[in-house]
UniProtKB/TrEMBL annotation:
Substrate binds at N9, W10, K11, G173, S211, G232, G233. The keyword NAD does not apply. Belongs to the triosephosphate isomerase family. Keywords: Cytoplasm, Gluconeogenesis, Glycolysis, Isomerase. Pathway: Carbohydrate biosynthesis; gluconeogenesis; Carbohydrate degradation; glycolysis; D-glyceraldehyde 3-phosphate from glycerone phosphate: step 1/1; Carbohydrate metabolism; erythritol degradation. Its EC number is 5.3.1.1. Homodimer. It is found in: Cytoplasm. The active site is at H95, E167. This is Triosephosphate isomerase. GO terms for molecular function: triose-phosphate isomerase activity. It catalyses: D-glyceraldehyde 3-phosphate = dihydroxyacetone phosphate. Involved in the gluconeogenesis. Catalyzes stereospecifically the conversion of dihydroxyacetone phosphate (DHAP) to D-glyceraldehyde-3-phosphate (G3P). It comes from Marinobacter albus.
Amino acid sequence: MRRKIVAGNWKMNGSKDLAKKLVGHVQSEVGSLDNGVEVVIIPPAIYVNDVAKQSGGDLAVGIQNVGQWQSGAYTGEISADMAKDQGCRYALVGHSERRQLFGESDEVVAAKVERLTSCGLTAVVCVGETLDEREAGQAEAVVARQVKEGLANVAADQWDRIVVAYEPVWAIGTGKTATAEDAQAMHASIRGVLSEIGAPAESISLLYGGSVKADNAAALFAEPDIDGGLIGGASLVAEDFVSICRSVPAGTKS
């Protein structure tokens, strides 16, 4: 049985006031959800503790980035162990903004995934193609490479700490969204790649991200290989985020 997950990535947004009001509102609503979805809040690292205090145990907390090193002279970096120490259970890895703006390669992603899984955190490994790559017919090949190389260091007993989030770069923050059919096709392709590399593909949760909103979430989440979402802008509006969480269908996928 695969986990159903909706994770809110605040990116470089937030404040102590937002953490109190938004997380408090979401936390108060999560208890009434009967669809079995796990709700995760991923704020900027400086607000992780504030979010954890408001979560009441009903919400999981994640971190947006960790370093690929265990510890040492890496000023400004945060280790996976530090994130765990602050109550994080999830961490984003390989988000397209990290790849594009900070030059993170598949090799760096693999090193970070290894650090996270080794200390017991769940890595949400982000993959996705650019518009140019899609228009050139390279989308599946690009995503397959990112999956294979980013997960190259995962040990056989650590696959339960892996979640893959497909976020087409052309749909992030643009208002454009892949159709439910297109998203499902890529998720099915990813599941095939996971099987190809020896992972327990049918038990790994796959999330869709890229301009997910309250009015398109249900159609996306109804697809057989889409197990939830990685939500950007809509996660900053409590009512919208809760509505997206409610859009996850009840029942199991396996």
